């Protein structure tokens, strides 16, 4: 039963329910990684809006070094998103069951590296920022691209600005007072209650993940990302193993 559930959650064949469930799990992971990562690297790495704004401020103030550090973060996030697109499209061309699971597996591996090597990586520089910052930005870009591709841009998990905006729109429609004389001229303004519930759930999971991630890093440090890595591995492993079994059978058949 658990195998069927995991295969449905991260496998190639998608349903709206599976997309939403995966989005909720990834929102939790993103919140935990973002909040715990802030305590580790003193930067939020899940959204680039603040980074771009800071770069503009730094350049205006003549702080070129700080502006370059922001550029390094953006390049890392961009590279993560690009890597996810490459993996997904390659797996799609190969007709793999792990079309989306490969990116989840890569994210799990990178979070494990961050958890086990984070203290050492924080001392090393790359692209004008510590390697820890680059790694977290890369992971956030990777994850955001995964769920974006899966849901056809309907779900975001690594930043909440879009979630809060969409939530505000639906709440506005929910409380809108439809005048009786307007009904014949045009349809009623109605909130999408299912989407409203989903947005609230995604926002809540990001917040809960943030609390868990912050507490985890406070008490056990970089290793707090290891359970997150294990969670992502559990999500990805079944479709990956399905592909391994298929390839093995083909090899045995032609051996």
List the defining traits of the structure above.
single chain, 255 residues, mainly alpha, Growth Hormone, Chain: A, two-stranded antiparallel ribbon, 2% strand, DUF1275 domain-containing protein, transmembrane
CATH architecture assignment: Up-down Bundle
Strand ordering within the main sheet? 1-2
* Distinct helical segment count: 9
Helix/strand/pairing category: mainly alpha
What is the strand content? Answer: under 5%
Element pattern in H and E: HHHHHEEHHHH
For the report, how would you describe the main beta sheet?
A: 2 strands, antiparallel
Low-confidence stretches: none
Radius of gyration, whole Å: 21 Å
Quick one: CATH class?
Answer: Mainly Alpha
Total number of distinct structural domains: 1
Termini Cα gap = 33 Å
Structure description:
With 255 residues, the protein is mostly helical. The protein has one domain (1-177, 187-253): Up-down Bundle (Growth Hormone, Chain: A), CATH 1.20.1250. The chain contains nine helices and two strands. It has helices spanning 2-10, 16-41, 49-60, 64-93, 101-121, 131-151, 161-175, 193-220, 226-254; strands at 125-126, 129-130. A two-stranded antiparallel ribbon has the order 1-2. Strand 1 and strand 2 (129-130) form a beta hairpin. Helix 1 packs across helix 9, helix 2 packs antiparallel against helix 6 and helix 7 runs antiparallel to helix 8 (193-220). It is globular. It starts with a helix and ends with a helix. The model has no long low-confidence stretch (mean pLDDT 86). The chain crosses the membrane at residues 21-41, 61-88, 100-121, 127-147, 198-220, 226-246. It comes from Rugamonas fusca. Keywords: Membrane, Transmembrane, Transmembrane helix. This is DUF1275 domain-containing protein. InterPro entries: DUF1275.
């Amino acid at each position: 039963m658990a195998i069927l559930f995991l295969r449905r959650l991260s496998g190639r064949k998608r349903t709206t329910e599976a997309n939403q469930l995966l989005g909720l799990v990834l929102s939790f992971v993103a919140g935990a990684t973002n909040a715990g990562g802030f305590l580790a690297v003193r930067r939020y790495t899940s959204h680039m809006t603040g980074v771009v704004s800071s770069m503009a401020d730094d350049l205006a103030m003549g702080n070129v070094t700080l502006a370059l550090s922001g550029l390094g973060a953006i390049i890392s996030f961009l590279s993560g998103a690009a890597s996810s697109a490459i993996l997904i499209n390659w797996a799609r061309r190969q007709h793999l069951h792990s079309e989306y699971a490969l990116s989840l597996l890569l994210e799990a591996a990178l979070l494990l590296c961050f958890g086990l090597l984070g203290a050492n990586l924080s001392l090393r520089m790359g692209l004008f920022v510590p390697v820890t910052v680059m790694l977290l930005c890369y992971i956030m870009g990777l994850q955001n691209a995964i769920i974006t591709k899966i849901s056809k841009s309907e779900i975001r998990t690594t930043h909440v600005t879009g979630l809060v905006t969409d939530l505000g729109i639906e709440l506005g429609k929910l409380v809108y007072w439809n005048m009786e004389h307007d009904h014949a001229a045009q349809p009623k303004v109605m909130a999408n209650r299912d989407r409203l519930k989903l947005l609230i759930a995604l926002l809540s999971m990001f917040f809960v993940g943030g609390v868990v991630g912050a507490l985890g890093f406070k008490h056990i440090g970089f290793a707090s990302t290891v359970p997150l890595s294990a969670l992502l591995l559990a999500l990805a492993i079944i479709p990956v193993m399905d592909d391994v079994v298929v390839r093995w059978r083909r090899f045995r058949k032609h051996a």
